[in-house]
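Running log. JK asked me to keep both predictions on one page so they can be read side by side. First protein, sequence followed by its tokens:
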Amino acid sequence: MKLILVALFALIAVGYPSLHSQDPSSSTSPKKEGAECPDDKAWTGKYRNYSYGFTIVIPRGLKGFWNSARCVSRPDGCTCMQDHGRIIPLTPEPTEPDRYIEAYADNGADLDEPTVAEAVKSHLRGIRERSREKNVQIRKRTGITLASLKGERAVVRYYDAKLQAWMMEDFVELLRGGVEYSLYLRTPEKTYEHDRGVFDTVVTSFALSKHIW
């Protein structure tokens, strides 16, 4: 899936890991001299992704952070891999690093077949890998249409083997051409009902744009 003061970014990069792997083959994009590197910046309000052509609105009071490979600082600015999206922590405290919302887009290379069903299957497979055996419960799985794209939304309860706690994941998978769009919430079960409302505002704000690098 794979987005500031140095200490805060370290928290985001290490404490709030994306569930998606990075694509090392992504093309680099040089930034102008003196420009602030995007992996050192916090986003608020409307966020536009030019690499994969989508926008979301970051909820008021929260910030979105770079969730792609780190940029490389150079004397004439910085060079970055493609921008895959943003991660939105739902708590500033490092005691709950697994409570966040993420918007992530990629070319869908990890899918066996370029279908929404396969994207959901891949996400569920990742959850099962992190869960204790036979403790994954799919609470809901329904069709959804966002920005004229037909996709699926699933809600999953599972016992995280590493955290030794019950977790919830609420996620949406969409496809446009060869691009996979993932919107998802990962949160402890006790905070799901609250965080679901915040996640819903991100989901409903999702829109496609015409500009893709």
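And the second, directly underneath as requested:
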Amino acid sequence: MGIPMHEIREAVLHLLWKYGIKSDTWGTGSAKTLNHLIDEVSKKECILHEENGSVYRVTRTLGINVYYGDDAKLLILRERMQVFVGGRIRTRNLDTSLGEKVSPDETPLHAAVRALWEELGIEVTPDTVFRAKFPYLKGPQDSTSYPGLKTIHHIYPFDVTIPPIYYRPEGYVEAQVDKTTYFGWDEVQFD
């Protein structure tokens, strides 16, 4: 049985207080809420790691570039915006089409397959379309999701070219309980 949610909440609040991290601006602008962080910790999508007098949010994250087309015209999918319940809009300038946290019980490749299904409704097999690249570390850096909390991402990058059956020229919409995310296509500019 897991740790009760109220204990997770107390532990997160204690660490934030211990290191002087204020969450009063969280849930405004492009920042997520304190409850989002507590949920991430409870689902083990991130850990809060103390080191050298600081606390860091550490994630295992996918960066997936989603392509469609051929050498004559190649498109790349981009996140346009997230609209939260209540109308708050969050725009992010992601380096990749999709960003998704890897759950502790899955490999990065299986997480990539899951992310395509959950976010875009695209069902693929890992052995046919994914091209994995070398994983890398990003951070510690200021978090746009949780201002004041430094984040270290262990990033697992993938490229995927989707088959024509899944191509939607109008883009994709992912509806979640707390937000809706919109994706659209941009043409890849070759130099």
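Observation for JK regarding the second prediction: The helical segments are 5-18, 34-42, 108-120, 126-129.
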